[in-house]
Amino acid sequence: MTILSEIIDFNKDFVQEEKFKEYETTKFPDKKIVILTCMDTRLTELLPKAMNLKNGDAKIIKSAGAIVTHPFGSVMRSILVAIYQLQADEVYIIGHHDCGMSSVDTKSIVQSMVERGIDKNLFTTLKYSGIDMKEWLRGFNDVTESVKSSVDLVRNHPLMDHKVPVHGLVVDPHTGKLDIITSGYEYLVEN
Fold first, then answer.
1. Is the torsion defined by CA of 68, 69, 70, 72 positive or negative?
2. Same structural domain for residues 131 and 161?
3. Entry's SMART domains (predicted)?
């Protein structure tokens, strides 16, 4: 049996037994927040529990490393849609200790791609097309600095509502302990 067939079998029972009812909510976040966090599997249930969030409380965007890599990329677009269309009033960017993006090895990833059948000549084509694989797949050395960088990009984005606080936090993926790196409230008071 494949993983997909297991999922579909479970889903049939889930729907038939109406287990979905306990998760019913609207598309608008009850706590009016949008969270950008890492896709790390340890955070799937831990982070919402550590923040006292239930289904419907927040918009949660996940990406490798909780990094905003481009000011007009899909992560920033999602944050802006959450604010302007879906009633989010605060942004939380939450990195975590022991993140896989802190040790990204571009050469190793490219080698894995080649081993799985990607033509290695494609990387030369990409390079001549202006795609720098090292920059595109970049991670970070310090999670605190990475969070500060993403917060700064969001906070200073030309389309950002500057009355919306943008917070930066780091979570411990073992205990759920949250450390504030930068409070968006303080930034609003100072400016």
1. negative
2. no
3. Pro_CA
